[in-house]
Design a protein that fits this description.
Elements lengths: L2 E5 L2 E4 L4 E8 L6 E8 L6 E6 L5 E3 L7 E6 L4 E6 L8 E9 L4 E3 L3 E6 L1
Parallel strand pairs: 2-11
Antiparallel strand pairs: 1-3, 3-8, 4-5, 4-9, 5-6, 7-8, 9-10, 9-11
């Protein structure tokens, strides 16, 4: 059974930083590209960052220069380093494995709250 568990969220002041992690079991992340999405209260879910199997990355404009997505294949974990956090970054953050064999896997998110 493939499981993704996101953790590392919490409460941080604006300007602070957090690193959220996505620990994957049941499948090697070597075969996955990963998305970090977020959903803020009363807003649509949006893609924040993406990393493909070749470590090419993409960021939505609002987080460029502040967020960094990375992967540790040995730990089977994907990270999202978030620096200079803003109140508008408050959301539940989700990770999704988009496998090279065409299946997507996702788990529960982790809540990030940024206070002013």
């Amino acid at each position: 059974e493939v499981q993704l568990q996101a953790f590392g969220g919490g409460l941080v002041q604006a300007g602070g930083y957090l690193r959220v992690s996505c620990v994957v079991s049941g499948v090697s992340i070597n075969g996955c590209g990963f998305n970090w999405d977020r959903q803020a209260p009363r807003k649509r879910r949006e893609l924040v960052a993406r990393i493909d199997v070749d470590d090419n990355t993409y960021y939505v404009d609002s987080v460029k220069g502040r967020f960094t997505i990375s992967r540790d294949n040995a730990e089977n974990t994907v990270y999202l380093q978030m620096n200079d956090l803003k109140v508008e970054d408050t959301a539940v953050y989700y990770c999704t494995c988009k496998s090279i064999w065409g299946m997507d896997y996702w788990g529960k998110g982790t809540l990030v709250t940024v206070s002013s």
